[in-house]
Design goal:
Low-confidence stretches: 1-6
Mean pLDDT: 89
CATH class of the largest domain: Alpha Beta
CATH topology of the largest domain: Rossmann fold
Structural class: alpha/beta
Radius of gyration: 22 Å
Order of helices and strands: EHHEEHEHEHHEHEHEHEHEHEHEHEHHHH
Largest sheet: 7 strands, parallel
Strand order of the largest sheet: 3-2-1-4-5-6-7
Number of strands: 13
Shape: globular
Length: 394
């Protein structure tokens, strides 16, 4: 379907943080997404749950961006404040559709959509239940129970009140199907990647035996196993290096682990790196590793694929939906298996090159243009159905 909606169509978007994306230098994809949405919607309002500055000074295709965040210590009162503020703003804006990126964002969007009779589309990018379980595994029973209870409530609100749920893999789709959500309301979508940033990268052959990880330093990412794998690798490859790009709650713990294992000259914590510098870092590396215990559709993996970098990744369902054993070495996410796979990449250059070539070719299906256009088709169909069509007549 390629028809264009010619009426005055307004879209309200819920996101977690806009200032955070700007700080990370990751506004490029967001700008492309909004440019695409403006093919249908000639007026877009963006609301941020975390940013607290009211009207945000962000240059985003002339779109109004407003922060709903606050410093109220009580989680319940803070949530109520966000909800009432969002209600007031959205009621005045009178959107034809509400678009939410994430579970918490979807929770607020669905309640507002129900009260104002507006169609809501929600994206779910991760297995939030498993991520929360892992993150709170060392927390007390009460903290864990409260968080999982809130998560369960948010999931039920989203599956009952959203018009369409966009999920990034079949594992998440099955989770919502078991909750009773009709299959025709759940669409598995690809994650868009700005491939042009990575496709033209020239490998820096001056560097060798450099392993790279890009991502959050949190329990579900399993970086601990990768560091332990390094202690095995350096026994045979004493000059091998692991560059860890990213930050998170386990930063200090992982740094301490690397020092305890005497890896101070082999493991380097680079912290947050702006998106524009990621291609150069990938060009220096010999192997990209993703040892996660659970995933949505990891952007860093897609970028490594687009670069043509040999990949070692966890043999879990969500990753198998992206790459197969002809495009990466898939392993059990434990230190010995990770180390063995990395050593194979170092020792068999021909095999590593073949895997990288195949992964680069496979990355084309995540091209930003085709993925965003698929999403536009979903919007077009919904805008011809109630309550969207009713809103357009008002």
């Amino acid at each position: 379907m390629t028809s264009t909606i010619s009426l005055d169509c307004r879209l309200c978007v819920f996101r977690d943080t806009l200032l955070g994306l700007a700080k990370k230098g990751e506004m490029g994809l967001l700008e492309r997404e909004t440019q695409n949405q403006m093919k249908i919607f000639n007026n877009i309002l963006m609301l941020s749950l975390s940013d607290t500055q009211g009207a945000l000074s962000i240059n985003l295709n002339h779109i109004t961006c407003i922060g709903l965040g606050n410093r109220i210590p009580s989680r319940i009162l803070s949530s109520f404040y966000k909800l009432t503020k969002a209600m007031r703003i959205i009621k005045a804006f009178h959107p034809h559709m509400i678009r939410a990126y994430g579970l918490a964002e979807g929770f607020y969007a669905c309640i507002v959509g129900k009260l104002l009779n507006v169609c809501v589309v929600v994206s779910i990018h991760a297995n939030y239940r498993m991520v929360t379980d892992l993150e709170l595994s060392d927390s007390g029973f009460l903290m864990r129970t409260l968080n999982l209870t809130f998560l369960g409530i948010a999931e039920k609100v989203v599956y009952k009140l959203s018009r369409i749920l966009l999920v990034v893999n079949e594992e998440i789709q099955e989770h919502f199907l078991t909750m009773g959500m009709p299959k025709n309301k759940i669409v598995v979508v690809r994650r868009p990647v700005e491939l042009s940033m990575f496709e033209s990268i020239q490998k820096d052959h001056k560097h060798s035996e450099i392993i790279i990880y890009i991502g959050r330093l949190s329990r579900e990412k399993n970086v601990e196993s990768l560091i332990k794998a390094m202690s095995i690798i350096v026994e045979k490859r004493p000059f091998a290096q692991l560059k860890i790009i990213g930050d998170g709650p386990l930063h200090e713990k992982l740094k301490s682990l690397s020092l305890r294992l005497n890896l101070g000259s082999n493991v380097f914590f680079k912290g947050f790196i702006p998106q524009k510098e990621i291609p150069a870092l990938l060009s220096e590396a010999e192997v990209f590793v993703l040892p996660s215990l659970t995933e949505g559709k990891p952007k860093a993996l897609l970028e490594a694929m687009a670069t043509g970098l040999p990949i070692v990744a966890s043999n879990i369902r969500s990753i198998r939906e992206i790459v197969n054993d002809k495009e990466a070495i898939l392993v059990e996410p434990i230190p010995h298996s990770i180390a063995s796979a990395i050593m194979k990449m170092f020792e068999d250059k021909k095999k590593a090159q073949e895997l990288g070539f195949n992964a680069k070719r496979a990355s084309k299906r995540f091209n930003i243009e085709s993925v965003l256009n698929e999403e536009l088709d979903i919007y077009r169909k919904l805008l011809h159905q109630p309550p969207c069509i009713k809103s357009k007549r008002q």
